[in-house]
Amino acid sequence: TTEIYTRSIVGSVRCVQETGFPIFRTMDLEGNVSDSKYEILDKPTLIKLFDIMVTERESDRIALNMHRQNRITFYFSHLYEEAVGPAIGAAIKDEDKIVLQYREQGILLWRGFSIQEILHTVKGSNKDHAKGKALACHYSIPKIGVLPLSAPIGSKIGHGAGLGYAFRTQKEDKIAVTFMGEGAASQGDFHAGLNFAATLGSQTLFVCRNNCYAISTPIEDQYAGDGVAPRCIGYGMPAIKVDGCDPLAIAYATKHARQMIMERKGPVFMEVYGYRGGDHSTSDSAPLYRTKEVLAKLKPYLDAIGDPIIRLGKYLEKKGYLANYKEQMDKVGKAAVAECHKYAKEMDETPYPEYKTMFEDVYSYTPQNLQEQMEQLDAHIKKFPEFYPLSDFK
User: Fold this and answer.
1) Sheet of 239-243, strand order
2) For residue 211, which of 151, 157, 272, 268 has the smallest C-alpha distance?
3) For residues 126 and 156, is the Cβ–Cβ distance under 8 A?
4) Among 4, 54, 329, 334, which is least packed by CB within 10 angstroms?
5) Ramachandran assignment for 227, one of left (phi > 0), alpha (psi -120 to 50 degrees), beta (any other)
6) Alpha-carbon distance 92 to 98, whole Å?
7) For residue 266, how many other CB atoms are within 10 A of its CB?
């Protein structure tokens, strides 16, 4: 690696490429840090970060098995992207708001959302805080500052821009951390959202997960330039690329991005380079388009970024924070599996919310038209009970 100066939030960066818009890296594959100034997280925070990353991977594995068993209807995997959510969570303030994409389960765990709550949300059970109104994995958790996830690609970019604008106009010490994938950058919402944020001075950190694939669309079909971050020069928005398997780099870049947002009263863009290790979702089959030939071409890149859990584990060993990171992985992983099995059984036994709750929570009161629709539906179900088995509902 070499020291390269770039127009970014960090003046001097470590990069994993020699040309183009550099990628910020602090730690190599063996856990060696290039400069101690990048070590901004203390021991308890780092151990928590490592444990959450392991928990995220193991709970992923259990959830995917549950889908195969027809116990949940849908799920997004986070394989090899576990560092992004919790590392960002460690570097921002608790008061900051989160506008999710799909693979930020780690930041939910960081903020105290439990595996029990995640499973009930994925099922949409009666214990789901959203009362089963959202798609599986489409979280909405006001108590930890997480806005409702908007499913259409790119639609949440404008939400993050607007929220950050409100924070600035109300003079609040808050930012809106807004996630997207590189595929969202091909949507019209991307241009509109970033241009609004830049011109209005939104206190927004845009985080683009570039994991090489937008479902089945590879990055070479997504753009011809050097990633997404260079586009921000045209918006007058500071931007940086970060190694997505380097949690220290993610945390360091995030901390400085937040500082810059509050000082400049304007947005920052962070493109996080990683790799989606699994299918896009349980509705996808990656081997159909990620053939052996494709994976062979990707191998040099994958070898360069490695596994985020192993990289952080080796670092923690070198620092003396863990005697043996593999033993810690095993211990935390087994605890996560046990917790998943415990609450999966509870999830199975918990009914869905009463069907009438679909009419609630839109207005502070129930308007006449919704009251009439609810009564019509109730009468219809009572007339044709054989077509509407309600035994699984509260």
Assistant:
1) 23-24, 239-243, 268-273, 204-210, 176-181, 97-99
2) 272
3) no
4) 334
5) left
6) 10
7) 21
Indicate whether this model's pTM tops 0.85. yes
**pLDDT tens digits along 259-317:** 999 999 999 999 999 999 999 999 999 999 999 999 999 999 999 999 999 999 999 99
Total residue length of the chain:
394
**Minimal CA–CA distance to 248: which of 303, 321, 301, 183?**
321
Tokens of 44: 């308890």
Closest CA to 6 of 245, 354, 300, 242: 242
Q: Helix or strand or coil: residue 20? A: coil
C-alpha radius of gyration, the chain, whole number = 22
d(CA 178, CA 153): 13
Give the pairing type, strands 204-210 and 12-14: unpaired
Instruction: Show the tokens assigned to 348.
Output: 């199975």
Instruction: Let me know: does 96 contact 175? Beta carbons within 8 Å.
Output: yes
Q: Residue 289 and residue 295: Cα distance in Å, rounded?
A: 10
Region of 215 (left: φ > 0; alpha: ψ -120 to 50; beta: rest) is left
DSSP state of 185: G
